[in-house]
Amino acid sequence: MKYLIILLCALSCLLNKKLGFFICLVFFSISAYAQTDIDAIMMSKNNFCAGFMYSHNSWKNYWEGTFKRDNQNLGTVSGQMIGIMGNYGVKDNLNVLFSIPYVSTKASEGTLIGQKGIQDLTATIKWMPIEKKWGKGDFSLYTLGSIIIPTTNYVADYLPLSIGVKTNTAMFRLMADYQVNNIFVTSSAAYYLRDRVTIDRTAYYTTEMHYTNLVEMPTVTNYNIRTGYRSSKLIAEAVLDITKTNGGFDITKNNMPFLSNQMNATRAGVNIKYTVSKVDELSFIGNAMYTIAGRNVGQTTSISVGIFYVFDFTKKKRSSIEEAEKTKTEL
Amino acid sequence: MKKAIIKNTQLILLVLLMAACNRTLEDRTKELPPLSPLQADANAGDWKPVVLSAANEFAITAPLAVSNGAYVRELNEIKEYQQALTEEQKNSIRYWGAGAVLRWNEIMRELVAKRNLPPYQNADGSYPIPSAANPFGYPQFPFSNPPYAARAYAYVSVAQYDALVAAYYYKRLYTRVAPYKVDATIKPLLPINDLPAYPSEDAVVGAAAVELLKLLFPADVAYVQQKADEQMKARIMAGMNTRSDLEAGVALGRLVAAKVIARAANDNMSRAVGTPAQWAQLESQTAATGETPWISLDAPNRPPMLPFFGRVRPFLFDSLTTIAIRPTPPPPTASAKFKEELVEVKNFSVNATREQIAIVHYWADGVGTYTPPGHWNAIAAEDFIQLGFSEVRWARNMALLNMAVMDAGISCWDTKYFYYNPRPSQMDPSIKTSTGIPNFPAYISGHSTFSAAAATILGYIVPARANAYTAMAKEASDSRLFGAIHYRADCEVGLVQGKKVGNFAIARGLTDGAN
Prior knowledge:
With 331 residues, chain A is mostly beta strands. Chain A is 6% helix and 53% strand. Chain B is mainly α. Chain B has two domains: 63-265, Vanadium-containing Chloroperoxidase, domain 2, CATH 1.10.606; 273-511, Vanadium-containing Chloroperoxidase, domain 2, CATH 1.10.606. The interface between A and B is large, with 48 and 56 residues.
C-alpha cells in the first residue's frame, strides 16, 4: 500500500560494501521501489556498475491508523518490480547512482484493477568525505543526496494499488560505517522532502476539506542500521529500518488510504551480496524484509534478488579490484 | 578537502532547497471577494417558499427604534470590536463575507465527506447499521452516502431559502437600517447596501443550518455551533449587524427550521434502510421475472444501500409521480444488447486510456468524499461566486439545485430497486474496475441521474453555461462506463431520467417569483 514511498527509500539499502569493490547496491524497497545506496561502499573511479533487480512484495494485513486488520475486498495485495540501476565512480570517493523501476500491483480479491507502469527515476550523488583508521578498525562517513522524479503520468491517487505516490522528492542522508576485521556496522539517517502531488480530482477530504487538485506531502525521516560480516567476496548483514512520516493523518475507519497519510514502518530483514570468485566483476544480491510494526501501511513481506556487473573504464589495464585492494592495503 | 566538503554540501543543499520551495497551497474558495450583489432582491419576501405556507407564517416582533438606549448600547459592542481587530478576526470577517449560503454549503460538504464511510463489518460478517440515537458509538452516524447526502443538502438548502424569504419579508416590513448607517463612527468592513438589517440574513441562514445539521449530523453539533458563533460575531465586528439583528434572525431561522424538520421526520427516510425480509423480497421478486438479481460485491456481502430511498417523499413532485416516471426495464441479461454492453464494459476495464481514467477519478466521488450531489454543489457554488447573487438568490438557486438532485436520487433509487439488476462484475467476474463498485444495483446510474438533474436546473439558472453543464453531466455519466462499473444503458437512461427530474425544478423556478 502506501508505504511505498517510504519504504522505498528506506529499504533500499541493504547491501554491502567493502573493500574495495564497488558497490552496486541498491535496493529497492519493495514497495517503493526506489533504489538506494545505503551501503558503505564506493565504486572506484571510472568504474561503472550496472544491474537488474527483481522484487516481490505482498501483504494481507495492514494498519488502518493503529488498528490492524485485513480487507476481504482486497485479499492479498502484491507488487512486483523490475529495476535497472547503475553506479558510476566519478572519483574514488564520489559516485553517481541511478535507478528506474517498472512496477505492477494487484489485489487477489475484490474488483479493483491492478496498476502497472514505469515509476520514478532516482538519481543520487554519493560522497565519502572521510575514510580513516580509527582504533582497531576503519571508519568512513558518507553523504548522499538524491532526487526522485516520477517518469510517467501514472495514477497516484489510487492507494493501495497505485504504483507510487508520484511526488518529486529530494533526499539527504548521512551515513557512518565502522568495520573491524570482517565485522561492520553501518548506520544512517535520511530526510525526505516531498513536493506536492497533482491528482485527478479537484477536491478531497483529509481531516478537512480541500478544494484543489494538489496534495501537500509531509516529510519523511528514515533510520537504517545494518550489521554483519563483510569481506571482498561476501557480505551478510541484518538490517533494521525505521521510516516515519512527519505529519500526515490516519486512515479513518473503513476508509481508503490517501497519499498524505502518516505512513510509518519498522522493518527487519537480511541482506546478502555474493561476488563470484572467478569473475570478480559479477555479483549477486538477495534481500528479504518483513514489516514488524506500522501505521497506515501494509504488513509487507518482500524479497528481492539482483545481479550486477562492473565495467572498468580506466585507461590503465589494472582492474578496479586490484586498485581497490591496493587502496585497502594502503589504509 | 575542506573545499570539496563545502562544494558538495552546497550541491546537496541546492537539491533540498529546490524540493522545499513550497509555495503555499491555497484552496480555490479560501480567499474570495466579499459578496456584492448586483441586485438587492429587496422584494424576495414575495417569493414562494418551499415548506412555509407564507413568508410571514412565523411572526417576529418589531425591532427597537435605533434611538432606543438598548440599541445604542448594542452599537458600542461593534465599536469596541472595531477598535482593535486582530488578523484572525479580520480573516473571519473576510471568510464569512464571501456569503453565508456559500460558506454553509461548504461546511455541509465537509461534513458529508467526513461521514461518508461504510460501516466496518462485525466479527460474524454482518454489518452494524448507523443509528441517529447513538451518533458517537460505532458505526458513526450518519453514513452519508449519496442518497443520504442528496437529502441532507436539499433540506438544509430549503430551510435556508425559506428562512431568507421570511427574513426579507420582515426586513421590508421593519426597515431597520444597518448599524453603520446609524452611527458614522462604525465602519462597514464589507460592501454596503440598502437592505434593512433586521433580521439579519446571515443569522437566519446560520440558524437554519445549525438546526438541520443537528438532525442530519448529530455528532458534529459542537463544530457546527462553533461555526455559527463565529459567523454571528463576524457580522457584528464587520459593522453589518447589531446583536438584536442577529438574535431576531436566529429566532426566525429556528422557527422555519422546525417546520422543515417536521417535514423531514415524515418523508419516509426512516424506513429507507428496510429489513432483512424486505431485502430478500427484492431479490426474489426479480428472480421471479426470470432475471438475475443483484448481489452485493462487497465482502462480506453488505445489505443494499438504502433500498427504499425511492419511497422518500420528493420536493418537486409526489410519490405517485416517482412511480409514473420510472424508466422502462434495462436490457434483459439474456439479450444480445446486454451481451454487447457487457463486452463494452470489459473493453473499458482493460483498455481505458489515461485520460479516461482521469475522468473516472475526477467524477468518482466515492467513499470519503462529498458525493456526486456535493460535487454539483461545488460546481454550482464556484460559478455562483462569479455572478453577484444576493444571499436570498444564492439560497433559492441552491434549493432548486438540491431539490432537483434529491428528487433525482429518489427516482434513481426507485428504479434501481425496482429492477434490482446486477453490476457488470457480477455477470462477468473477470471485469476489474478502476473505482469502487457502489453497493447497489446498476440500472440506472446514480451519477448520470444526479448529474443530468443538476445540469438541467443549473442550465436554467445560468443559461450561458448550459452547454457546459450538459457536457459535464455527460462526462460524469461516461466516467462510470470508463470505470467499468456501469453498462451504457445505465448511463444513457440515467441522463434522460435526470433531465426529466431537472425539468420539474425548472417548472418551480419559473413560478417562484424570483424572475
